[in-house]
Specification:
The protein has 131 residues and is mainly alpha-helical. It has five helices and two strands, in the order H-H-E-E-H-H-H. The protein folds into two domains: 5-48, no CATH class; 63-116. Helix 1 (5-12) crosses helix 2 (16-25). The protein is elongated, with a radius of gyration of 35 Å.
Length: 131
């Protein structure tokens, strides 16, 4: 079952203009019918906009809703802490890798410098006598 622009607007509680802008910007894909109206697939519409059930209003939250939001906030905090710990671990690993690479670079630089040193005898008489 596809939506027209008006039906889609009612289904998500948005204006037709908002949906039209979303279609024009490419956030939602829609096809045009022969009469020029838009045909929007429900899955495509609800991918961006959640559906609104009849009777849904901005009424004050009930106690269960508040508890549920607190639980979800706690879950989000835990997830954020876990992600932060993971980032710190990755950061430490990258710093170790950088330190190892710098050490290797310095060793290669010393070896290259040693190979490039001029070991021929210096001075005119030493070269003349082959010493």
């Amino acid at each position: 079952m596809s939506y027209t622009l008006g039906e889609a607007a009612k289904a998500v509680g948005k204006s037709k203009t908002t949906l039209h802008r979303a279609i024009k910007s490419g956030k939602i894909s829609a096809s045009k019918a022969d009469d020029g109206s838009y045909i929007i697939e429900p899955s495509e519409l609800h991918r961006l906009f959640p559906s609104v059930t009849p009777g849904t209003t901005d009424a004050p939250l009930h106690k269960n809703d508040t508890e549920q939001q607190c639980n979800s906030l706690g879950t989000l905090r835990i997830q954020m802490e876990m992600q932060e710990k993971e980032r710190e671990r990755e950061r430490a690993l990258l710093q170790e890798t950088i330190a190892d690479l710098r050490e290797d670079r310095d060793k290669w630089r010393q070896q290259a410098t040693a190979l490039l040193e001029d070991k021929r005898p210096k001075g005119f008489f030493k070269r003349l006598l082959g010493q």
